[in-house]
From TrEMBL:
It holds the Pfam family Lig_C. It comes from Geoglobus ahangari. One of its GO terms (molecular function) is ligase activity. The lineage of its organism: Archaea, Methanobacteriati, Methanobacteriota, Archaeoglobi, Archaeoglobales. Keywords: Ligase. Residues 88-242 form the RNA ligase domain. This is RNA ligase. Residues 253-377 form the RNA ligase Pab1020 C-terminal domain.
Amino acid sequence: MFVAEALNLSKYAAKKLEEKNILREALIPHSFFSDVIEAYRFDKKFGEIEEGTLVAKTTNGVKIVRGFPKIRRALTLYPTLLKHFGDYVAVEEKMNGYNVRIAKFGKNLYAITRRGYICPYTTEKARDLINPDFFNKYSDYVLCCEAVGEESPYVPKDIYGTKFDFYVFDIRHGATNKPLSVSEKEKICEEFGLKYAEIFGIFETKEAHEVVKDIIKKLGREGREGVVIKDPEMKREPIKYTTSETNAGDLRYAFRYFNDYGKDFMFSRIVREGFQSFEFKESEEEFRERCLRLGMAILEPMIQSIKEVDQNKKVVERIKLRFKDFSVMNLFLEHLRRSGVNYEIVDLKKEGKDIIIIIDRVMKSTTDKIKHHLKGNLW
């Protein structure tokens, strides 16, 4: 198979790859993806090859887009930053959206989600919003972006004041995953008019824990997610750290759909709160505020879901999406179906030249679980 050859795998490794059966089709064949002849994604990590890696046979040769490396999390800022980094760190905003890698295949841009799917909706947005001139100069590179906004199909948020946009946080070589430095990335983004995640500054590591603490408190008050702390030269792996408000927001979402999300998702966020409360040396009032925020995040959405099912409603997440083309909309809906997403169309209309569709993502497992217990069945 061309995938093994493109990755320069040995015969033994190629055989193992086939035996493990971890390659999956990365797209639905369609004229919208006319530059791609066939493409496969890695459903799991394979040796040094990251989960979400994409290998595509395109009209201008075989292209590799390595999966985005997982960023590990700091539970404490001190002494973690001193232990992990050199003399200086760059502190960058961690935006609350979904991870996308944008590459150029043939004549068009393609948007690849974290798991390696070429997403029709995100690809249409990338072709509309990203300056393609970047790829004329850096053809072998990939823009690693956070896709954010109210009209996100995966993480809809209204805190950024945009319907939908991309913010670059890394620029990486597609085949090797080697990143450019923070300053190189910033310079290139300015050159091509690409929006990028805010860089709060470069700080001495010995004092960075106090600086990050202040930034986190400010971001929390604004309802934003957190920070990614990086080696300015990108020689060491970055780490991430989130606000209490984001942890509570994640828990609110998880307990709204409690049977559709794993216990680890919930547990890890509560543990983060304990470490942050300890390190921030909170007053009694601040500690009580944190406890109330967490308690409300857990109980309030869950009770809302129970009430809805009690009223013979389904537990759903409502999403508003905006398309330029009906065929891309239908392609995306098929993409959702094949991904196992249970959805219902609520509304479909034209708004100027745009197509607006509102869908309810049905959380069937949570709905069924609540219904089961409301009928008197045991846990």
